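User: I'll paste a sequence; please echo it back and then give the predicted structure.

Assistant: Echoing your sequence first, then the prediction.
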Amino acid sequence: MASKVIPWYKKKRVSQVQSDYAYHHTKHVVKQQQTESRKSSSKSAIQVQAQATAAMAEPAYTVPVFRQRSSEETEEYQRVTTNVGKGLAVIQEELHRMRMATKAQVESLELQREVRGMMSKRGDMLDEIPKMPDFLVALRPHTVWEKTPVKLFCTVQGNPRPIVKWYKGGAPVDPLSAPGKYKIENKYGVHSLIISRCVVSDTAEYSAVATNPHGTATSKAAVTVKRASGAGESCHLGLVPHLTVIHPSKLEVSLLDRFSVSFGVEGGSISLVCTMVVVPDLPNLPPLAQWYRDDKLLKPSNLVEMAVGGSAARLMLPHLAKDDEGLYTLRIFTKDGTAEHSAYLFVSDAPPSAAGAPGAPMSVKAYDINADYVLVAWKPPNTVNEAPLTGYFVDRCEAGSDSWVQSNDAPVKVCKYPVHGLSTGRSYHFRVRAVNSAGISRPSRKSDKVTALDAAESERLQVIKIEGKYDIVIRDDDLEGYVTIPGEPTDVHASEVFKSYVVLSWKPPSPRGRAPLWYVIEKCIAGTGAWQRINASVKLHSPRYPVFDLQDGQKYQFRVYSVNMHGSSEASASSEPVQKVDQDGVPSAPGQVVATRNSKSSVFVQWDPPKQVKNLMGYYIDGRVVGSKEWFPCNHKPFKHNRFVVHGLIPGETYVFRAQAANVFGLSEESQESSPIAVEPALATPSSPFGITMLSCDGASMTVAWKSPKHCGGSKVNAYYIDKRNADTLTWKEVNLVAVTERLCTVDSLTEGIFYEFKVQAGNLAGVGVPSAPSAPMKCEAWTMEEPGPAYDLSFSEVRGHSLVILWKAPVYTGASAVSGYLVDMAKKGSSEFVTLTQEAVSHRYLQVSHLEEGQTYVFRVRAVNANGVGKSSQVSEPVCARALPGAQEIVANVDGDTGDIFLSLEACEICETSKFVWSKNYKPIGDCPRVEVTTKGRTSRMTFTHPDKDDLGKYSVVVTDTDGVSASHTLSEDALNTMLELSQAIRHPIVPLKHGLNYEILEKGHVRFWLQAVKLSPSVSYRFIVNDKEVTSGEGHKISHDVATGIIQMTVDHFTRANEGTYTVQIHDGKAKAQSSLVLVGDVFKAALKEAEFQRKEHIRKQGPHFSEYLYFTVTEDCTVMLACKVANVKKETTFHWYKEEEEIVPETPPNVLSGACALPIALFSRKDQGVFKATLGDDRGKDTSLFDISGQVFDDIINALAQNAGASASELVMQCTPEGIRLQCYMNYYTEEMKTVWKHKETKIASSEKMRIGGTAEMAWMQICDPSDKEKGHYTIEISDGVQTHTRTFDLSGQAYTDAYEEYLRLKAAAFAEKNRGRVVGGLPDVVTIMEQKSLSLTCTVWGEPTPEVTWFKNEQEVCSTEHTKVTFDGGKFSSLIINQVTPEDSGKYSINVRNKYGGEFVEITVSVYKHGEQIPEAKLGQPKSATPAVTPVPPRSPALPSKTPTPSKSQTPAPPGKTPTPASTPAPSMRSQASTPASTPVPKSPTPTPKSPTPTPKSPTPNPRGVKSPTPPRFMKSPTPPRK
């Protein structure tokens, strides 16, 4: 797109024809150009000579070295000059007239352009000549005001290109030293230094130093910064001229990158950006830019944001709606007029709220605004594939609120609706929603804010001006006088008549009065006179009112009353009869639609207007791809003109178009479809070729080449014409009269040593295009160098985000030897630093370049190599951007599903009418090759291999001509080819695909089923089974069948025996497809099948009687009881069931009930002792069945794991219990046995059972005892219970206060146990009752123990017994104490007791002695209620506070065995004593003279292995009383 510049003096005289003004376009004002004719004439020759004379007359022209002539040449030149000089006066007069006609400024610009062109030619020619730097434009001094910018610039030339550095007062200028202060630029060969916001200290001499290898050049200039008066420094206004204010329209603005046709979606956002070059570029003075939509000036708002600055003009639309669709124009005021650019923005519908719902309406506006009435209008949406619209809903909300209220109950069918019932003085927004049978659309963009005010109020005001400066406002009320009852309204009529409503309008009354006024409306059927009030419940303040409830087909009349607080007026005159009908309908369909080519992605569509216009809003255009049934909208907002450019089409695709007209009543019928049209650029002449380069020269001829035009003009370029001229002349001569089709030409008949210039024109069906720019002067001099000439015609293919392929042609001049390879160099655009991509020269003429930066632009050059060295570089290629084309596809390798052909195909993302698919192998065009066949259909090209084999392996590429580089490649590897060959073979020689091959299955009763399954079978399928080379048919012992639905073919063998061993085969024929599947059933495989068949037969027989439907298995209940269970079937009442373990019958407490179908044997407290083989038997008169279950090995481990899972889940937290031996940690659970995998850990270290750490447990808990704890045992303790799947963990932290309290409790219990162990006590020897005959001697002897040795005291009837002759008390060795009574008498009967005590405590034991006379019956021993011996405990230190343990365990006292032997008694005790002595000593029942003190804490359940409690410390009671030996 180009920019438009309109000079001020031409603005009123320039007329333009805009054929595509509504779309992407740029307006031009250009100078009329004359087409150069290829035929020469004398008049043109004279003009050329005149131009040459004028050019030579320039004083600045210097004759270059290569144009210096010999004497003969000088003579010939003077002769020609003389002839030319004869017409010089005439030519000068003609030139003067032309200059006056076209103004001096235009001619000056033209001459400057010519000079720049000639300078560029000279520059190209002198590129290879080394030259030291030289300033073409030197620095100039500047005087500026403080806080203003200054720009120093210069132009320097040299070869190689010089490097320019800037200095201030001899010191280098460093932009980084003061960020934002200095800016150094180098654009288009102009070097500049910009100083922003100058200060006085910036006054200095600045210099630019240009350096290259051949020398240095310097340019200097002074910058003076002045400070204004009153700014603290003296002012020199007399020395500096005043700087005038620059208006934005005085800037020179050139548009660069322009925004293109854009596409948005409702609810999204978009930015339109146009970059520009502004001279001078002042930061605080941006250009004056204006934005237009459809020729309407846009203003900044919350929906439109504008910005100008940073060399760009930007328009942002943050909240897109279809209202924003249209033609956007940027207009910038410049020094020479205005620069403009326009492009169209399309905004499509957002996804609908419901499938099939219509798009949102648009352009909602409010008209006829009154105090309580507003007329809302909008534009209808386009309906393409949706159901027809049934109406619209109009919503309103008060300004500042988000609460929307629906105004109409039923959808209104026209695009207008009168909204009444508004509140006077309030502001409102309106929106509209469309309705169809599928649902309701999204709401439209809300309207601008409107305020409900009486429009007639302003008409009642009169303004009178006094002396031109005072305004006096007079109301009509002041002129009416005092009026109470208002006058009647006038001119009652229907202003809007539609099918759904009628809007009544009238003129307010006059006089009106000052009191607030409202209206009352009455209606009647025309001619009846039966008036009925309409607005009975609404006070109407506006002279407008919509009436809805009118009957169809009836005519009505209306009248209006004016009412105020004083009363009502007379009725107005009746209106004319009004009938509710449509005044107009939808317009007729548009006329003929014609589509023509416009560009490669757009089509120009125009149509005839409808015959019945009926207030058109615009048109909708729809498109459809030929062959598709789906239409798509081309625009989303009614377009007012009858021509439209449809953008965003697929290049090369074929479309048809139709149009619809829209008005307030909706959309018209669709027009007829246009003729199909392919999306192609409009036909035009091609652009000029470029890049003319010399490839070879032999002294008499030159071979030149060039690059094809960038734009072919919509038709294939089929001709090139070359012109030449001597560089010293301006006359061009034709080289070829016959068109050249290749971009290579050898120009003959040249003179050696002369410089020549060439230009080329391209031609197509539209004609010959403009010529190229003249080439650089080329000297006709024979090439004799040994190195090769330059490669040429560099092109690119397969451009992607990170790679591309560069191709070139071999040099025409090969040098002294053949070309052996090529070197490829690459550089980023704008950089002169080329990098060689290959370390060694490549032998082929293409190279795939990878590892590129996506979006970066690169240039390339190629150098040919032979045995003598590296030749000249080719011309630098055109810049190429590493970015894939939108929609670019890759080559697909596949096999045709019908024919089995192997092919490569590409679907082009872009194509035009002249495009061709050029296939290559290893980047060599294939052409007419018998090995492949190329076909093209639409945008897809397919290359089919006729006889694919290994010779076809390689890299294939395809290029689509006349596109923006559509190309792709594919490497055909051997593996891929073999895979496709197999698939091709399968397609050409089809087989019946099998989902499952032949297999066998053992059925019930021992039957064997052979089967296979095909993916698909037809009803006409045929097959046969072959067993051991013999066909088997369905009959006795064999059943053969198939199922088409499932694809299964099967054969069932009823009786499978050893004779069935062998090979089984199925052969299938289904149409042309065949399949065969075999199964070898011999050896071990057959034996396994036979064994399984026999087992199934036996199982069938077994199940005829009572049997186990499920054999024995185990379960674990919640209380950790192991249950051996089984299920039985086919049982009856007489069926018996028995349990056995190791062949010994088990009789459970609950007999098994076989009729329930299940039997179970509980095993409580399961442990290792329960290992063994369990058996269950089931039988009756029909048979017997047995089930075995071996609980050992893995089964035993599984049961233990199941118990551990239950126990672990129920495990309590670890609790602590102190004992005299140490500290015990306990974990309670449902069940515990030592077979469980239980691990105790201390600080993550596993604990092994030892004397220090004892590990054990009971059926209810697991415990770990820390004996004699110390500080080393502090820490974290853990118990882990593993069930084979997961580990249940419980922890306890034995540290800190917990350990301190536990340790104190342990010491207390240990001291108590020590005292209990060492207190005095009777170890044994005393009975409870003694019966003796008088005159006998009684010896009560016992063994006592204590540490230290206890004191012993005997008592009779609670009186101490002293030693006498009758009663003797002895205590021998601190162990044996005796009470001997000589010759007992009845008086000796009584209750005797012994008290044994030391410092730790003692014990009190009682004995009852009965003496009877000789001859009397021995009295029966009466023990009574025995009392336990009560130990007297020495007090111990008070114990520490109660520990946090839950179950303190009492310690078990250990009583040492008394030393020595018990003395043998002298007399035989009574028989009662013998019988009592047989009582076990482990359970004595001692007596005590004192009550037993209660424990301060309740005694918990003992956790010790002995559940019966602690062994009593009392010595055995029922023993023979030891008596001293007789003397």
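The first helix runs from residue 42 to 56. The longest strand covers residues 215-226.
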